[in-house]
Structure formats: structure tokens, C-alpha cells
Amino acid sequence: APNPIIAPSILSADFAELGRACSRTMEQGADWLHVDIMDGHFVPNITFGAPVVAKIRKHVDQPTQSYGRGTFDCHMMIAEPKKWVKEFKAAGCDLYCFHYEAAFSSAAESPEQKTDEKTNPKALIRYIHDQGLLAGIAIKPDTPVDVLWEILENPDEKERPDMVLVMTVHPGFGGQKFMASELPKVQELRKRYPELNIEVDGGLGVGTIDQAAEAGANVIVAGSAVFGAKDPSEVISLLRKSVED
Ligand code: DX5
Ligand code: ZN
């Protein structure tokens, strides 16, 4: 399996000192920053948009290589993922992870649009790659993993995702209870794709990491477990150790 990557979710940071919170998390051993973008429409909560991402980017050096330290892993919980790709690229996002459900739910205005980026995850992945970003695809707990096979088996690598995110809570809020019911999706993905970056997000912490790591996840998001800890460095290294073993 690929290297462990620990990606603290800054959703649980103090937004009044977000820049400092980001650089501190990096100093505490984070690999990536997980940046939760919510539009109050795809999910029942609002966070922030590209202008804030551009400001916090100045507090964390941009990675010198793909998947490197300081990667901004933007989790786009938004209804119109195509619309914001360029803005987020300009703001310093490195990995643009959209929701499968949103790639289909944005209604096509004309029959031709049914096959374009607005409604087709493969074309959206190509578009994200064309903008110079890594592309991730996320699925909510109610979405079966089977919808991904066709996308992952695409012979055209421009249209294949660089990462799959399996949500282990219903997206929208930090601090929710981990849903172990989602782990068979991770297992199935890992069985078929030994080298794929598989991210889990929601309810991860020292008490739940072993199950997720065992299932095959290697990119670990943790919000409240890291930002709520007395010693965040210790939590980050425990999460990493569990994936390594
Ligand atoms: C939830 C977000 C998560 C959230 C995780 O919709 O996508 O990234 O910050 O928070 P915890 O780790 O507290 O469950
Ligand atoms: Zn997230």
C-alpha cells in the first residue's frame, strides 16, 4: 500500500487564528492539510471559500512534488464542483476532491451537457487535471462503492482519480461518530487497487484508526482528534504508526 499520509482537518481549528493553526499543525508532524469547503447547499453547513484558502496558503509552503508535505487537500462539499476548480487552483489548492454525488446532481441544462464536465465525473477529473491539480473523488455513506469501478477502470489516466475518499460520517460537521459500516468499501477498493491513495474522513482518532488502517486506508483525516488533543503531535504520530504497522 502507498505511504501513510496524515491530513488534519482544519475544520476543528480556531478560525480566528487559522493561519497560525495551519502552520502549527505542520510543525506537529502533519503531511497534508485537509481543507473542508462547504457551501450550505450540498451539506447543511458553510465554511469558507477560495479567498481564505489563498490567505492560509501563505502560512504553509506549497509542496515541491505531487503528494508532498504541505499538500492542500481540498474536500469540496459543494453542489457545483466544476465551477470552482480554477479559483481553487489560483488560491493554492493542490488536490481537488469533489463529491461523486455532486458531479451528477448538478442538473444538465441541455442534452449536450449530459456528457460534459458538469454531469460526468470522468470529464470533471480530466478538467481538474488540465488545470494542473490532482483529482480526488469522494463518496458519502449512502453511495455504494460500486459506482467507482467504471471510473477507476478507465484506461485514460487523465480521467482516472488520484485518490478516493470514503466518508466515514455524513459530511457537514466535525466531531461525529465514526461509521465502521463504511469500511467494507475501503477493503474492496484496497483489494482491487493496491497502489491507490484511499482516504478516510470522519470520526478518526486513536480509538478508530486501527480498523480503518486494517481495512486499507492510507490517507487519514482527523479534525477533532488532532485539534482537540492536549498533545496533537502525539496523536499525529499514533495515527501514522497505526497505518505503518
Ligand atoms: C466532515 C468533514 C471532515 C471533518 C472531520 O464533513 O469532511 O473533514 O472535519 O472531523 P472529525 O475528524 O472531527 O470527524
Ligand atoms: Zn473532509
Automatic annotation (TrEMBL):
Gene3D superfamilies per record: Aldolase class I (3.20.20.70)
Any Pfam family: Ribul_P_3_epim
Involved pathway(s): Carbohydrate degradation; pentose phosphate pathway; D-xylulose 5-phosphate from D-ribulose 5-phosphate (non-oxidative stage): step 1/1
Chain positions recorded as substrate binding sites: 9, 75, 172-175, 203, 223-224
Active site feature: 36, 201
Record EC number: 5.1.3.1
Any GO molecular function: metal ion binding
The protein's required cofactors: Co(2+); a divalent metal cation; Fe(2+); Zn(2+)
Gene Ontology BP, a term: carbohydrate metabolic process
PANTHER family tied to this protein: RIBULOSE-5-PHOSPHATE-3-EPIMERASE
Similarity section: Belongs to the ribulose-phosphate 3-epimerase family.
Cofactor note: Binds 1 divalent metal cation per subunit.
Top EC class of this enzyme: isomerase
Reactions catalysed: D-ribulose 5-phosphate = D-xylulose 5-phosphate
UniProt KW keywords: Carbohydrate metabolism, Cobalt, Isomerase, Manganese, Metal-binding, Zinc
Record protein name field: Ribulose-phosphate 3-epimerase
Binding-site residues, a divalent metal cation: 34, 36, 75, 201
Species, as recorded: Hapsidospora chrysogenum (strain ATCC 11550 / CBS 779.69 / DSM 880 / IAM 14645 / JCM 23072 / IMI 49137) (Acremonium chrysogenum)
Family annotation (NCBIfam families): PRK05581.1-4
Taxonomy, superkingdom: Eukaryota
